[in-house]
Write a structure and sequence with these properties.
The complex is a heterodimer of chains A (381) and B (388). Chain A has 381 residues and is of the alpha/beta class. Chain A is 22% helix and 25% strand. Chain A has helices at residues 11-16, 41-53, 74-84, 95-104, 125-129, 144-157, 182-185, 227-230, 253-264, 313-317, and strands at 4-8, 24-28, 58-61, 89-92, 110-113, 133-137, 164-170, 174-178, 194-199, 207-211, 217-220, 241-246, 292-298, 302-307, 311-312, 321-324, 330-332, 339-340, 349-350, 355-359, 369-372. The longest helix of chain A is centred in the middle third of the chain and has 14 residues, at 144-157. Chain B has 388 residues and is an alpha/beta fold. In chain B, the strands form three sheets. An eight-stranded parallel barrel of chain B has the order 1-2-3-4-5-6-7-11, surrounded by six helices. Chain B has a six-stranded antiparallel beta sheet with strand order 16-15-20-13-14-19, covered by helices on one side. Chain B has a two-stranded antiparallel sheet with strand order 17-18. In chain B, helix 10 (242-260) runs antiparallel to helix 11 (267-274). The relative contact order of chain B is 0.12. The chains are: A alpha/beta (381), B alpha/beta (388). At the A-B interface, helix 4, helix 6, strand 8, helix 7 and strand 9 of A face helix 3, helix 5, helix 6, helix 7 and strand 8 of B.
Chain lengths: 381, 388
């Protein structure tokens, strides 16, 4: 199987990834996944159809914690998925759900998602003994040392069939799962149930927060996993190690992919993006080039933008700018709250593909482009 | 009619074990030196575990030892020798979360109870644990009573539910806030209670702790619970005070005994006893309906109605000896929480020379008059003017 799974919740992201590279799709089974529960069924079907036509392996995430009465609800959507194309694996964090699936869809391969636990190699004993399980995603708290030990153990134990351990190397890392109505407790309206939390003694750290359609709430770590920073300690070449780049709810898939490629390049040292070499004096962008493009909105809090052109941040902040929406409308741009995607101060010089976040302003939509205000483009669409 | 559920109380240290036994627990759970989930509780040394086993046997009380942490790589080699040492104790069961720990314990002949840390939520999952040799499931606290009963019937395994005490806002065992914020592993006994801190959302209001749950209190649900196939009722709180342990065990003991006799308990009186120790206000968790917004704690409402003064540690006929842990000023009134759950006003204190005293000082012992066997009974004072 492919060793790299990419978590996607958008068909647009799918098409930004290299079509000839060996990666597998890791996507949410609608209403059964915790991390991106709002995935629309139409988007899901489109992702599956595209992957099937590309002959790309598909893994489905169903890491909900179901009660007895919830269990039958998984079968219709899963059977529909199987009609679209083969499913290489279904990812669960509940043994009862796995048993239920096994009984109703014999032979369906399962993968275990550790949210907690699974920090010692013997944790995988029972999973390995169950032929239904093909692998496991280790818990967020697992150390590189524990992972290496577990991989060594797998070398010894599993010679007769494939069992793979996966580690997440990019994206959000959920660290808290609750069944309580936390959005209401936090004065977050249901339709804005994606938001941010901060703990009063850590005002600079914001924790992404979201709720599922059935009411479960998740809080993620404030640091988004960056492949450039996390792969150094990992035994990447190990035959039993798989990697997950999770672009769901994170900046964008291509940015993660590119950083993963850079992390693999010979001689790479794990340095934060902010320390990478940047031009001291970038050339002024031409008026017709967009400076940045909005790639995600988390209304009413913030927007994520991808830098399109190298530009000095001070120039950017002191110049009149305008957002050009895809429908042709223009608005005066404000760049309040400009930070890197993971909450740090941006470098003085921004370079293409830098991902930044800033305060959302009324009317800002995904796809909007940032231009110098004095030089509107000929065609903003 | 189902058999009366077992009342299972926490025993954080040897003294609390005595308290739990005195106030009527059918069973206690405690932890030895390793693999427990409350690293900061007093816990028991192996020698103390042997003494605890003797005492529980003498009291006709079952004893369960918690090994419910999720071990890390460095812990895993310690399990086999630890289990070997526990075998001599013959505990009634071990409480476990990790499948590998459960497997090893069951293989060595221990009865195993699956901890709520494993978040068992459905019948297929309960059946899997049963097939692996588990004898009881402590269900996830997110389940409603009818769902718990369904699992008991479908999986044909003993079911235990929590009825009283602090609750995690997260599914138990599905929270790494402490790990990531304080570098303390919640699932290995180091929870820093990060959920109880002040958090703010998009519209902050002062001193909000929206991740902090109210305490569970299922007292008034007991008649309903007793009609369902629930084997055991657990009181949370190995790290809580002796006052908490005495009050909760006494209240539930009295309620269960009245229900078994077909007598309606005096709910107001029992509820009053439960409200004596500090609490985060009560809710019924998810037992009736999924826990809603009313299950979130108010950070300003943590005070109990009473304060712990001391505990009766010896008795000679009608004179008891109390070890004093907190002061009682002249004119302040103390009460004895009798082991039958009733409150008794203490009118006179004497020193060890039998001279009347007007005030009590901590770290001293005083005598009081008793009308029945009250060794290990708790002495308290009301925090406000309100008195029974």
């Amino acid at each position: 199987m492919n060793r790299t799974l990419i978590g996607l919740s958008s068909i647009l992201d799918y098409h930004t990834l290299p079509s000839n590279a060996p990666w597998s799709l890791w996507c949410d089974l609608p209403h059964w996944s915790l991390d991106a529960p709002c995935t629309q069924e139409a988007t899901f079907v489109e992702l599956l159809q595209t992957a099937a036509s590309d002959q790309r392996a598909v893994h489905l995430i169903a890491d909900r914690l179901p009660r007895d009465e919830d269990l039958p609800g998984i079968l219709p959507i899963l059977q529909r998925s199987l009609q679209i194309g083969p499913v290489a694996g279904i990812w669960v964090q509940n043994a009862g759900l796995a048993a239920y699936l096994h009984r109703h869809i014999p032979g369906i391969p399962c993968y275990w998602t550790y949210r907690t636990g699974g920090e010692h190699h013997r944790s995988f004993d029972h999973l390995c003994a169950d032929t239904q399980f093909r692998g496991a995603l280790v818990g967020p708290q697992t150390s590189a040392r524990s992972l290496r030990k577990s991989l060594q153990w797998l070398d010894i134990q599993r010679t007769d069939r494939e069992f793979q351990l996966f580690v997440k190397i990019g994206g959000h890392q959920p660290i808290f799962q609750s069944a309580r109505p936390l959005a209401a407790a936090l004065n977050i309206l249901p339709e804005q149930a994606t938001s941010w939390l901060r703990e009063s003694s850590r005002p600079d750290q914001e924790y992404p927060f979201w709720t599922t359609s059935w009411g479960d709430s998740l809080i993620a770590d404030c640091r988004i996993l960056d492949p450039l920073e996390v792969v150094a300690d990992l035994p990447l070449e190990h035959q039993h190690l798989g990697l997950i780049l999770d672009a769901r709810r994170t900046a964008d898939a291509r940015a993660l992919w590119d950083r993963w490629q850079r992390a693999q390049s010979p001689g790479h040292q794990p340095v934060p993006e902010q320390q990478a070499q940047r031009p001291a004096h970038p050339e002024s962008p031409t008026p017709q080039e967009p400076l940045a493009q909005v790639i995600a909105i988390e209304r009413p809090e913030r927007a994520l933008v991808r830098i399109c052109t190298a530009v000095n941040i001070q120039t950017l902040q002191h110049s009149p700018l305008a957002w050009h929406a895809p429908d042709g409308t223009q608005r005066r741009a404000s760049l309040r709250g400009l930070q890197t995607w993971n909450g740090a101060m941006p470098e003085p010089v921004l370079v293409p593909d830098d991902i930044l976040r800033l305060e959302w302003q009324s009317g800002l939509v995904v796809g909007a482009r940032l231009y110098w205000a004095d030089f509107p483009p000929e065609d903003s669409r | 009619m189902n058999p009366l559920p077992e009342l299972l109380a926490p025993a954080g240290d040897p003294r609390k074990l005595d308290t739990a036994l005195a106030y009527g627990a059918d069973a206690v759970y405690l932890a030895g030196p390793d693999f427990g989930l409350r690293a900061r509780a007093g816990n028991f040394s192996l020698q103390q575990l042997h003494l605890a086993r003797e005492r529980t046997r003498r009291a006709g009380c079952r004893m369960y030892i918690a090994l419910n942490m999720y071990p890390a790589e460095e812990d895993s080699n310690q399990l086999a020798p630890y289990l070997h040492r526990l075998q001599a104790l013959e505990p009634d069961a071990l409480i476990v979360s990790d499948p590998w720990v459960q497997h090893c314990a069951a293989r060595q002949g221990f009865a195993t109870h699956v901890s709520t840390q494993a978040s068992v939520l459905n019948s297929p999952e309960a059946r899997i644990w049963k097939e692996r040799g588990a004898t009881r499931i402590v269900l996830a606290r997110e389940l409603q009573l009818h769902q718990a009963a369904r699992i008991a019937r479908d999986a044909q395994i003993e079911i235990e539910i929590f009825v009283q005490g602090a609750m995690c806002m997260a599914y138990s065992g599905k929270c790494l806030l402490s790990n990531f914020m304080s570098k303390r592993d919640a699932n290995r006994g180091g929870c820093a209670q990060s959920c109880r801190w002040f958090w703010q959302g998009t519209e902050p209001h002062p001193k909000a702790s929206p991740l902090s749950s109210r305490d569970l209190c299922a007292l008034e649900l007991l008649p309903q619970i007793c009609r369902e196939p629930i084997a055991a009722l657990k009181i949370e709180g190995r790290m809580k005070s002796p006052l908490y342990l005495a009050a909760t065990t006494a209240a539930y003991r009295q309620a269960l005994d009245r229900i078994s006799q077909g007598i309606d308990p005096n709910w107001d009186q029992l509820r009053h006893i439960l409200e004596l120790p500090p609490n985060r206000q009560f809710c019924q968790g998810s037992l009736q309906d999924p826990a809603g917004i009313q299950s979130i704690a108010n950070p300003e409402a943590h005070r109990g109605q009473a304060e712990y003064i001391g505990q009766v540690i010896a008795q000679d006929a009608d004179r008891g000896l109390m070890e004093c842990r907190a002061p009682l000023a002249p004119g302040e009134q103390a009460h004895l929480l009798r082991t039958d759950g009733t409150l008794h006003r203490i009118d006179q204190w004497r020193d060890l020379d039998n001279r009347p005293v007007e005030q009590l000082l901590p770290s001293r012992a005083y005598s009081l008059q008793l009308d029945s066997d009250q060794v290990h009974a708790i002495v308290l004072k009301y925090a406000s003017e309100e008195q029974p």
